[in-house]
Each structure stands twice: as structure tokens, then as C-alpha cells.
Design a protein that fits this description.
- The complex is a heterodimer of chains A (about 160) and B (about 190).
- In chain A, about 90% of the residues lie in helices and about 0% in strands.
- Chain A has about 160 residues and is an all-alpha fold.
- In chain A, helix 1 (about 5-20) crosses helix 2 (about 25-35) and helix 5 packs antiparallel against helix 6 (about 120-160).
- The two termini of chain A are about 65 Å apart.
- The model of chain A has no long low-confidence stretch (mean pLDDT about 85).
- Chain B folds into two domains: about 1-100, RNA polymerase sigma factor, region 2, helix turn helix motif (Rna Polymerase Sigma Factor, Chain: A); about 110-185, Arc Repressor Mutant, subunit A.
- Chain B starts with a helix and ends in a 5-residue tail after the last helix.
- Classes of the chains: A mainly alpha (about 160), B mainly alpha (about 190).
């Protein structure tokens, strides 16, 4: 038999396992393997390699699933609170935009109230500053509260591990 | 089957905790085995296992409900490993457990039972050793094809690689594995 015939057989042996071959090729290969001991041995070795690969086992670490389920649930809890955050930022954005648009009027209104009440300029000017900083102050408080919550969560994770 | 995938996609989009618990149970062995074989390290595989499920939770809405869930799952796991590797400035998946560069793969249980020892055939050890000698890019496709029984297109999805690349890796990997098990050069 020529080298080309063996090369074709070798190619079909692998192709049959990887992507499949036509019925005609299967027929040809069967006949060739019946006549050629070397190619038959090669086919057997390939089959054996695949069978061994399928038979390999790996030991699972203890409680892998339950530990993972716990972590996933913790993360799910965290994610559930995220839409609230989006709302906080959106509210702040709107508040700042509104604040910027109305700043001249608020300034004049505070100035008028300040003069009517007879308070020093610095007082109503500080009031204006405070009015501007209020959204940032609200976000800062929420952030601080959230961070406190996260550290508690981290403690729980450490305990779990 | 298509309905199953669609309801799975819907549950993932809703981040259904019961569904996630069930999926973790159902795929724990296959995912861990895959991670073990591509990282070659139990602890690392365990870390990636947990991270993969966190990603599944976070990006569940990206599962289209058309492809096989396991293909999507393995592709998430694979990307995590690749990202981690990039952070470590490695060049490719292969560098992770390349026989010439890394530590040998750890497959054995830390505390194997007597029964396990009896049942562990010499041939299995030979195959594991041979597999450990294969470059990771070939090992990975062999496992996805012959252990996970994924189709060629699904493997291409997991690898984000062309079908021709998947095929050539499979042919080369199978040939090398056969030669290694037979005791010849890879």
C-alpha cells in the first residue's frame, strides 16, 4: 500500500473523532483497518486516548457548592440595592441642575429676606452656600452609611471563610 | 429544550436565587473540572469557580437563551482566567500551566479515600500526566470536545476563536495526546 493510502487513513481516523466522516469514508476506513495492522493500532490508540480522557475524574473541594451559593446570594443582595443608588445620583444631578438654573433668583430672594430681617450679609450668604451644598451633603451621608454596611458584610464573609 | 433555555435566560435576567442555587449544584462538577484542567491548580480553580458564578449572577441578562448554557458558562470562566493571567502579564492561556514553565498540574485529591485509591487506575494517572504535558490550548479543546461533549461551533464560542482554529487545535491535541499516552514524543 502506498504512503498516501496510510496518510488518508490517519487523517480519517482523527477526522472521524473530531468532526465526523461520511458513510463512504467510514466504509473505506473500515476496510483499510482490516488490512493494515499499523493503522488499526493507531486507530485503537486514538480511541483509547479519548476513552481515557472521558474517564478522568476530579475530586470536588468540600462544600464548594454551598460556599459558592452563599457568596452569590451575598452579591445578589448587594446588587438589589444598586437601583436605589442610581436614583440617588439622578436626584442629585437634577437637584444641581435645578440649583444652577435658579441660583440668581435664590441669591436675590435670600438677599431680600436678609435685608428685611436685618441680618448681616454673611449670614444669608452662608445660607446660600448651604443651600448649594445640601445635595452633596446628602450623598456624603448615604455613602458613609453604605460603607458602614459593606464593612459588616465583609466581616460576615470572613466568618464564613 | 428551547423552552428550557428561554426560561433559564428569563430566570438569569431576574437573578432568581433558586435557579442560581440549582445551576451551581448542577454544573459544579463540570465547571470545576474544566477550571482544574485549564488552571492546573485546585485553589485557583476554586477561586475562579466562585468568581464565575458571581459573573453569571451579574451578567445573566447577557445569556441569549439560544446557545447551550454550559458553553456560555465555560466562556465566562475562561475569560476570568485569561483576565487574571493578563493582570499577571502572561502572554496566553498556555503560559498558565505550560509544562516547561509552571508547576505540575494538581489533580489528586488531598485526602483520597482507600476506595478512591483502589479505583484509581494506573492508566488514569498516565492520562493525567500526559494531559499535563500538553499545552493548555490543546488540553482545553480536548476537554471541551470529549469530556464536555460540546460541538465544534460551541467550542468556538467558548474560545471566541474561528472554527478552523478549533479544528486544528483538536487534531493537533488529539495526535499529541495519543503519542504521549503511547509513550512517544508529543
Amino acid at each position: 500500500m502506498s504512503r498516501e493510502v496510510h496518510a488518508r487513513a490517519e487523517q480519517l481516523i482523527a477526522q472521524g473523532r473530531v468532526e465526523g466522516i461520511s458513510a463512504a469514508d467510514q466504509q473505506w476506513l473500515r476496510q483499510h483497518l482490516a488490512d493494515c495492522a499499523n493503522c488499526a493500532a493507531r486507530s485503537g490508540a486514538t480511541e483509547q486516548a479519548i476513552r481515557s480522557l472521558r474517564g478522568l475524574s476530579v475530586a470536588l473541594p468540600p462544600a464548594l457548592a454551598s460556599r459558592t451559593q452563599f457568596r452569590v446570594r451575598m452579591r445578589a443582595e448587594q446588587l438589589r440595592s444598586e437601583p436605589r443608588w442610581r436614583m440617588v445620583w439622578a436626584a442629585c444631578g437634577i437637584s444641581w441642575a435645578f440649583g444652577a438654573a435658579t441660583a440668581p433668583y435664590v441669591w436675590r430672594a435670600l438677599e431680600w429676606v436678609g435685608h428685611r430681617l436685618g441680618v448681616p450679609n454673611i449670614i444669608w450668604e452662608l445660607g446660600f452656600g448651604l443651600w448649594w451644598a445640601l445635595p452633596a451633603a446628602v450623598v456624603a451621608v448615604i455613602l458613609l452609611m453604605e460603607n458602614a454596611g459593606r464593612s459588616t458584610e465583609a466581616d460576615w464573609k470572613r466568618l464564613e471563610n | 429544550m428551547a423552552d428550557d433555555k428561554k426560561s433559564l435566560a428569563l430566570g438569569l435576567r431576574r437573578r432568581d436565587p433558586e435557579l442560581l442555587d440549582r445551576l451551581i449544584e448542577q454544573y459544579q462538577y463540570r465547571l470545576f473540572r474544566y477550571l482544574m484542567y485549564i488552571t492546573g491548580n485546585r485553589e485557583r480553580a476554586e477561586d475562579f469557580f466562585q468568581e464565575t458564578w458571581i459573573r453569571v449572577l451579574e451578567r445573566g441578562h447577557q445569556y441569549d437563551g439560544k446557545s447551550k448554557f454550559e458553553a456560555w458558562l465555560f466562556s465566562i470562566a475562561r475569560h476570568l482566567v485569561i483576565d487574571w493571567q493578563r493582570q499577571k502579564k502572561a502572554q496566553s492561556l498556555d503560559a498558565l500551566t505550560h509544562p516547561d514553565e509552571g508547576a505540575p498540574m494538581e489533580f489528586a485529591d488531598d485526602d483520597p479515600s482507600p476506595l478512591h485509591l483502589v479505583l484509581t487506575h494506573e492508566s488514569e494517572e498516565t492520562v493525567q500526566a500526559s494531559l499535563g504535558k500538553l499545552p493548555a490550548i490543546y488540553r482545553e479543546v480536548l476537554l471541551l470536545r470529549f469530556q464536555e461533549e460540546l460541538g465544534l461551533v460551541e467550542i468556538a464560542t467558548v474560545l471566541s476563536a474561528p472554527l478552523s482554529t478549533v479544528k486544528s487545535r483538536l487534531y493537533r491535541g488529539l495526535e499529541d495526546l495519543r503519542a504521549l499516552i503511547a509513550g512517544g514524543p508529543a
